Amino acid sequence: MTKSLTSTIYLFLSKKAFQTQLCSIILLISGVSWTAKAQVSSSKVSGVMPVTKINNGFIKGVREQNSFVFKGIPYAAPRTGASRFMAPVRHKDWVDTLNCQAFGSASAQAGSKEHPVVGSEDGLYLNVYTPTLSQKANMPVLVWVHGGSMVAGSGNGANGHAFADRDSIVTVTINYRLGVFGFMYLGDLGSVYKTSGNNGLLDLIQALKWVKVNIAHFGGDSNRVTVMGESAGAKLSSALIVASGAKGLYSGMILESGGFQCIRDTVTAKAIRQRVMEKLNIKDPRDLLGLPTEKLINAQTEVLGGAKGTNYFGPVMDGIILNDSPYASVAKQGRNIVHYLVGANENESRIFMDMDKRLYHPDSTVISDWFGSNYPYCLADYTRALKHFGKSKDTVAAANVLSAYMYQMHTNRLAKELAAAGRSTWVYRYQFPPANHGSELRYVWYAPAQIRYTADERDFGRDLHRYWVQFIRNGRPGIVNNINWGPYTSKRQNVMILKKHFHLQKIKKFFNNPHQPSACFLLN
Q1: What is the four-CA torsion angle of 318, 319, 322, 325, rounded to 10 degrees?
Q2: All domains of the chain in start order, with CATH
Q3: Strand pairing of 494-498 and 424-430?
Q4: Helix, strand or coil, per DSSP, at residue 202
Q5: Phi and psi torsions of 144, nearest 5°
Q6: In DSSP terms, which residues pair with 504 in a beta bridge?
Q7: Helices 394-403 and 375-389 sit at what angle, rounded to 10 degrees?
Q8: What does the pLDDT read at residue 12?
Q9: pLDDT of residue 484
Q10: Between 2 and 228, residue with greater pLDDT
Q11: Among 264, 304, 350, 477, which is disulfide-ready with 467 (CB 3.0 to 4.6 Å)?
């Protein structure tokens, strides 16, 4: 497969590449060509080499297809050395024009046996795709938060051209700290580490602050910023809803297969830290502070133990950045002016069942590995599903229940809570085959000049992408092919069914086990 034909979803499934590391889903759409001529402010562009000034100084980008692209812009100071587990801060200014023509480093994560670490601890960079540098353009802005189970991935792989070239949406793709560097709780080690369990979330907030201050220099409207994430990207983005310091930094949010389920308590966060320490054979958490990157990543990989570690890392209710149960926080905050588009896929669990074959015929051990002390709730519903489907269809029963517990239930709860608070909310259920986890990405990032679609896929992708574009532009998905996507409210539970023939359906009762805590994975 050539780079020019890279498919939309690249799965890090290679055991050689990631050893036993959790397989992560990362969008890698390469460029999209388009015939429209981008408008360019001649005062800001020298030939095909765009130059613009941001609050830190001048930066130089590249012309790609029909957009200007600025790669590897540092949105925060490097968090290395003594500051590696500390909150992000503004990058210092530079004197000379900074070359932003190549992607910056990905955040440190597991690599191959030959190269155990991919990226580095100096990974707080973002990329901007824009069709014009005119500050009069006032184009809507999309900020993409990549997935990868909070331990892998990078914004570098996302095809910003999919929205910038054809839809005049300024697209920003970001990196954030991952795994132990982004979400290991060290708040008991001193005041400078009080928010360490939320470093990855704070990185996202810092990137949004950068967008607020600088995006006008790229033709963007700082008052029309939509944050979009899928999987771990959606889970991390959801924390913005209840995080202190995030208010006013975005006007819209698109959460694909993810809600509050990765927000953990400090007990669980410390328990995961203890597992890391045991792998490193250390007893004092202070010894973690100076360990080499490779040692920390290797220990993290062993703790994750493959796909079952999907929810082991994530934001922490530290009492500072996240103060309360997320659902309780939404209820207390009530109505706001942000617009939300949320949903899940029909067959979310299938890809994880392929990664962890035990899930085809789950027992208490494997369900405990995936959900921690929450496992009895999932196990009880699986047992009930077996009675419904019959023991000969235990895999069907498992797929249904696991899809609900991994993703659907959490999206359902979030939609219901947002609607109850009176917030503008739109909900979908993705059913276009195969409707697995991440299947929608190749259509959200619709690239007809880049990717080979069948006729049905082309029609479906064109319409789905158009709904997303309209939401980013106007705060509502609107009408496509005479099908109006109505909002989800407490009185009118409208859910858009995304399949070959789109249709709006009223779903009065979503699946929910009220005994299951808000966090997908907890440890006592």
Answers
A1: 100
A2: 1-524 (3.40.50.1820)
A3: parallel
A4: helix
A5: -95, 130
A6: 496
A7: 140
A8: 31
A9: 98
A10: 228
A11: 477
| pLDDT-based confidence at residue 391 (cuts at 50, 70, 90) | confident
Fill in the amino acid letter for 4: S
Hey, how many other C-beta atoms are within 10 angstroms of the C-beta on 66?
18
Going through 357-490 in order, the beta strands assigned E by DSSP cover: 424-430, 479-480, 483-484
Give 26: exposed, middle or buried? Use CB within 10 Å, 0-12, 13-18, 19+. Answer: buried
pLDDT in tens, 268-316: 999 999 999 999 999 999 999 999 999 999 999 999 999 999 999 999 9
CA–CA dist 390, 370 (Å, integer): 24
DSSP letter for 21, please: P
DSSP string of 335-396, one letter each residue = --S-EEEEEEETBTTHHHHHHSGGGGS--HHHHHHHHBTTHHHHHHHHHHHHHHH-GGGHHH
Number of other residues whose CB lies within 10 A of the CB of residue 352: 23
* Residues 48, 36: Cα–Cα separation, whole Å: 16
DSSP string, 66-128: TEEEEEEEE-S----GGGTTSPP-PPPP-SSPEE-SS--PPBPEE--SSS-EESBS---EEEE
Residue 421: is its pLDDT beyond 90?
A: yes
The predicted model scores a pTM of: 0.92
Mean pLDDT for the chain overall:
91
Interhelix angle 375-389/364-371, nearest 10 degrees: 130
pLDDT of 340 reads 98
Residue 113's Cβ-count burial label (10 Å; 0-12, 13-18, 19+) is: exposed
Instruction: State pLDDT tens for residues 195-209.
Output: 999 999 999 999 999
3-state SS assignment for residue 465:
helix
How far is it, in rounded angstroms, from Cα 490 to Cα 504? Answer: 16
Q: Return the sign of the alpha-carbon dihedral for residues 32, 37, 38, 41.
A: positive
Query: How far is the C-alpha of 204 from the C-alpha of 76, rounded, in Å?
Result: 10
| Residue found under tokens 């069948």 | 454
**Structure-block tokens of residue 405:** 């517990």
